[in-house]
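Write out the bound-state structure for S-adenosyl-L-homocysteine.
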Amino acid sequence: MSDSLVNLLNFDAEAMAEFFTELGEKPFRATQMLKWIYQFGVSDFEQMTNFSKATREKLKTIAEVRVPEIIEQQESDDGTIKWLLQLEQGNAIETVFIPENDRGTLCVSSQIGCALECSFCSTAQQGFNRNLSTAEIIGQVWAANQAMKVMPRNQRVISNVVLMGMGEPLLNFNNVVAAMNIMMDDNAYGLSKRRVTISTSGVVPALERLKAVSDVALAVSLHATNDTLRNELVPINKKYPIRQLLNACKFYVQGEHKRKVTFEYVMLDGVNDKPQHARELARLLKDIPSKVNLIPFNPFPESRYNCSPDKVIETFRNILKQAGVISTTRKTRGDDIDAACGQLAGKVMDKTKRRFRRENTHVNIADIKNRQVNSGRSL
Ligand code: SAH
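---
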């Protein structure tokens, strides 16, 4: 392992083919490499037996498959699993697996912390360090996949990936797009485009660019029906207000058969959960192929909101239904291990000086070291 070695996890199929061409190898070597890494979970060139000894030796001198190391694994009573992955300089990120009857969803992070300041999100309070590389994003899928292979109930399989962990994926555009390409590549994880979802708080110019390079499913964190309230909850709204955001959403699904935008709407008691908000929401979404995902607010230390009562959420849903808007209520999963939406904290060496809660970070590294640790290397 060295900084001068290129990490092959950074390459999607196109970049991998370029890499092998530059090495003077045939392009099909790229396909073989993708299969070794992602389908067989092999990171050691020595085990890649369909490469000649000479090629393996050459690879060792210039490249590596460096996967993130798991430093903690927690399992919730409901089967949700959360991993803490060690990165350099004391940073750590979190990745969550959510098993359901008909699918297994992996929720991956795209940045160390988050630079946006959504007032109801715990990641926001951790501050921001940097974008994750493609290797660190796809490495989360790799690490989770390998970890679950050796777990007792090993029927757990990743069928869906959502970019809903820490960070704003559209502010890390190129690396996120390359990682999603690998997720969908038949020689890697082969997930269908409907099973890879990018979630954004509304970075409009990046959303407009996305359509040209990817056709993954889109989720948008709307959370409010007027700009005054959204400015407060999702401050990036001051830059890209609701109307602009909805136009970009409409553009993203335009001409795409059956594609719908999922609008995420966190239910905050007394803030955005009144019948009038539900009616406004239905009006806003009238001509966008969409569905709404109501998310019960997950509290975290010092959060200044409460979750709307069940009855209020039900009433909100009924109003949407009567207005012809399809909605679901997201089941809270993994909250006993702080793995639910908005509870991911990891360990962020904040570079923005915006962090006002440093002493209260969710995850304390000293704590972790005392607990049973699970090293990625031994998996
Ligand atoms: N930055 C992206 C990706 C994060 S996704 C985005 O904003 O979409 C995480 C989802 O969980 C978002 O919809 C986010 O708004 C929501 N969320 C954040 N904090 C939450 C909390 N405390 N309770 C419930 N949902 C929350």
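---
The CA atoms of residues 133 and 175 lie 6 Å apart.
The chain has two domains: 6-64, 69-359.
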